[in-house]
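Why does residue order matter? Because the sequence determines the fold. Keep that principle in mind as you read this record.
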Amino acid sequence: MKSFNSIRRDFLRTGSLGIAAAAIPASSLAASAQNGAATAAAAQGIFDVRKYGATGDGKTLDSDAVNRAIEAAVAAGGGVVVFPAGSYLCFSIHLKSQVHLHLLQGSAIVAADSPLPGEQTGYRGGVYDAAEPKTGWDAYQDYGHNHWHNSLLWGEDIHDLSITGPGLIWGKGLSNGRGRKDDGAPFVAEQPGVGNKAIALKNCHNVLLRDFSILKGGHFGLLLTGVDNLTIDNLIIDTDRDGMDIDCCQNVRVSNCTVNSPWDDGICPKSSYALGYARPTRNLTISNCFVTGSYELGSVLDGTFKKFARDFRVPRTGRIKCGTESNGGFINIAISNCVFEGCQGLALESVDGALLEDIAITNTTMRDLVSGPIFMRLGSRLRGPKESTKVGTLKRILIDNLTCYNAPQKISSILSGIPGFSIEDVKLSNIYIETVGGEPSEAAPVQPPEFESKYPEPGMFGPMPAFGFFLRHVRNVEMSHVEIATTTPDARPAFYLADVQRADFFAVTAPRGAEGAFALHDVKDLRIGWSRAASDATLASIDNKTL
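Structure:
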C-alpha cells in the first residue's frame, strides 16, 4: 500500500485525481462504493465528502459534512478530500494543513445566500464565519483586505494546502462589497454572517491552486495575504470584482490563467498593511495569462464570450495592476506573455511608501483598451503609520515587446512621479501602439494637475496633452524602437515631457502633431537619434519648446 505522502506527491505533481487514484487498487475503491463505507479509501488518504454526509443536491447545506471530511483527513495526518459530481451548497469551509481539496468534473462548491440587512441568518439558519475583529491598522487598506474568515473557503497559519480542479467554485451568495446581490437585493458587507470572498488565505506557505474555475467570486475571487511558495495555475475566474489579489506574498508563480473582471482588477499584486506590518510582495512571476473586462459575467466560463454592448456602463477594469495598497513594496517581478483585451492597461503604482523596483515586463499584447497601455504612478497618498510611511520609489522598470491596438484617444500612456520624487531608470523597447487619435490642437496645451495624494488611476489627470506618452518627474528614461500610430490625425504631440532628466529616444516613430512630436518642459540631458519623429538632437537643457 502506498503511503499518504507518496499519494500526495502524485497529486501535487500532476494536479489530477486520476494519477493518484490509479495508485489505489480498483477492487478497494469498488468495494468501498458498494458497501457505502469510507474506511478503505480513507486508509489510502482519500476522503469523499459524500461519505461524511454531503448530498451534492444544491439544496441541502453541505458545509458541515465538508468540514467533517477535512477534519478526518487532518486526523489521518493529511489526505485528499474529494468532491464528486454535484452541487455542494456551503457556508464557510475551513482549510487545513496537509489537506488537498479535489473538485471532480461536474462538481461545484456553491456559496449559500448571505443574510440580508436586518436578518440574523442566511440560508436556512446558516451564516458565514464572522470577520475578524478590527485592528489598529484597518484604516490603511480597504475593508475587504483586513478580513479572511468571512469567506466561502478560508485558511490561516496553515501549510501544504492544495485545491485542484476541474470543478467550479461559485460564489452565488457572496457579497461583492458594493451593496447589491445579482438580483438587486441589498447587502451590507460589514454585517455579521455575510461572506464576501471565494478563497482567502492568511500567513500560509506551500500552497497550490490549479485547474478549477471561479464564478462570481465576491469582493475577491482569491485574497492571498502573506502566502509564500504559492503556485496558481490554469484557473478561469469570471467575476464581478477582483479576480485575484496577491498581497504581501513571496515566491509566487501565476500562470496560464484567464480572468474576466469587468468591475475591478484581474490580477492584482498588492503590499498592504493588513498583516500589521509592511511586507513586500517579492519574487513573483505572472506568465501566459489572459485578462479582460469585455465580457458579460459568466460568458467566458461558459464559452459564449458575450461582449457588453458599447453603451453598457461598466468600468471594464480587468487588468494586471501592482497597487493601490502599497506599503511593503514590490520587488523582483516578471510579467511575460500576457494578453489584455477590452480593459485598462498595465499599472504600476507606489503611493503608500512602497519600493516598487526591479520589474521586467515582456511579450505583451493589448487590444481595445479603455485607458493607456502603460500607467506608472509614484504618489504620496501615504496611507499607513504616519511615523514610518514616506514616499516610496518606482525604479528599474523594463518593458519590452509590447503591441497595442485601439488605445483610447484622450488618455495616453502615463509615467508620473510628484515634485521632488521621480520615477527612475525606465527602459521601454520594441513597442507598437496604435491609438484612436483625433484630438484637436486645443488639447495640446493642457497642463494636468499634480494630484499628489489622489487615488491613482489613469484617468485621474483628465485628458492628456499627448497621444503617445506623458512623462513627468522622471529620471533616466530610455525608449528604443517605439512606434506610436493614430487611426485619425491628432494635433497633440506624441510625447510630452515635464521635469525629465536624462531622456534617450532612439529609433522612435510617430506622426508629428501641429507643432511637432515632442513637447519639452524643463528637460535636461535629452538625446534623440535615428528617429522618424524628430531630427537628431543632443540638448543639455530645453524648456517650453517643441521638436
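The CA atoms of residues 5 and 492 lie 64 Å apart.
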